[in-house]
Amino acid sequence: MKDKLDELRSKAISELDSIDAPSDLDSWRVRYLGRKSALTQVLRGLATLPLEEKRSVGAAANELRAFLEKSLALKEESVRESEVARSIERGRLDVTLPGRPPALGRLHPATQMLRHICDIFLSMGFEVVEGPDVEWEYYNFDALNIPPDHPARDMWDTLWIDFETEDGQRPMLLRTHTSPMQIRVMESRLPPVRVIVPGKVYRYEATDATHEAIFYQIEGFAVDRNITLADLKGTLFEFAKQLFGEERKVRFRCDYFPFVEPGVEMAIDCFACNGAGCSLCSGSGWIEILGAGMVHPDVLRRVNYDPEVYTGFAFGLGVERMSMLKYGIEDIRLFYSNDLRFLRQF
Ligand code: FA5
User: Which of 87, 239, 278, 307 is a Cys-bridge partner for 273, taking CB atoms 3.0 to 4.6 Å apart?
Assistant: First the structure.
């Protein structure tokens, strides 16, 4: 058996030496190391040999296998090198050509806007906090003065999670807004708080040019002694100036959200028509950009903040909508349709 292995070794090596094309290396590998090769047959047949012979033949066959594998690897390398050398000689490979630049990715336009808005509020002393996308009904609704059966629940078309408690309730959902984080943050710390919460929100609604089912919001709120509506207006006015430019006018009007009192909506004058009225602003001259208000005393009481001592403001804005306004994007669905012609513009 030993002689047979020696013979195999010298035959394999002399054939390997004579190879100079990569395709021949593959057939050599099949012939000498493949499943049907003589060496593999020897290794498979070890079990039938007497113990002594099994040991010595096994060791020799394994050593030969390792030797052939190593020789093949060395040969592959030298064949590759001589291929390159031949290509250079023939002038087919020009090593002086500049390399191909690797394709660089970039931040998604929604992420860019999200970071930009966070930076504006960070510069005003706000802190960034994040919260869960899968939320309890309590935080998304009840704690925000929206009990079951309250008609305000219709303002947020909800995706409920298929999870049932022992008493048959289904209290888990995908958050419809970032406002639940008002409660979570206030529950976990004492005033003063000044926080912004960027994150994804989910709504069970049909998409159109201005509505997505999954989009980003940024919540902001501040609670302390003596915070007034003037602080809310001042903060949001400064934000709009930094994002949209000095020349934009801002308008506050009453609006309804159950967790603020009073509630307001903020609009900027339409940048397309400068307030004259056009199709973008539906002829009104104004474009609504966010909802806001003074934190409702019942919300403060629920987290054990004394509304006689502390007051606060809160606001919530849609990130993609801000990009649409700033860059004149006409359809929100462009953000998530993965069209590189759109994405590469940012
Ligand atoms: C809210 O979600 C309130 N939580 C905002 C709030 C916070 C009010 C704190 C008061 C105090 P609303 O549903 O209007 O409100 O959404 C807020 C913003 O999200 C809107 O102004 C808009 O910019 C954006 N938005 C709403 N629905 C969509 C949608 N389907 N697609 C994209 N953006 C949306």
Answer: 278
Reduced to 3 states, what is the DSSP secondary structure of residue 294? strand
DSSP secondary structure letter of residue 159: -
Instruction: Quote the DSSP letter at residue 271.
Output: T
Q: Verify whether residue 73 is a known catalytic residue.
A: no
314 is catalytic: yes
pTM (2 d.p.): 0.74
The confidence score (pLDDT) of residue 155 equals 78
Which residues are CB-contacts of 123 (< 8 A; sequence separation ≥ 6)?
Answer: none
Residue nearest to atom 3 of ligand 1 (CA): 316
Cβ atoms of residues 137 and 171 within 8 Å: yes
pLDDT score at 254: 96
Span from the CA of 29 to the centroid of ligand 1 (angstroms): 65
Cα–Cα distance measured from residue 144 to residue 334, given in angstroms and rounded to the nearest whole number = 32
Question: Cα–Cα distances in Å, from 229 out to 71, 126, 222, 293?
Answer: 81, 17, 11, 8
Residues β-bridged to residue 307: none
Residue 182 CA to ligand 1 centre (angstroms): 15
Residues of the chain with pLDDT under 50: none
pLDDT digits (tens, 9 = 90+) for 244-270: 988 888 999 999 999 999 999 999 888
Residue of minimum CA distance from atom 17 in ligand 1: 317
Strand, helix or coil at 27? Answer: helix
First to last CA, the chain: 71
pLDDT at 94: 85
Q: What is the pLDDT of residue 143?
A: 97
The protein residue whose alpha carbon is closest to atom 26 in ligand 1 is 318
Q: State residue 234's pLDDT score.
A: 96
Q: Phi and psi (nearest 5°) for 141?
A: -125, -70
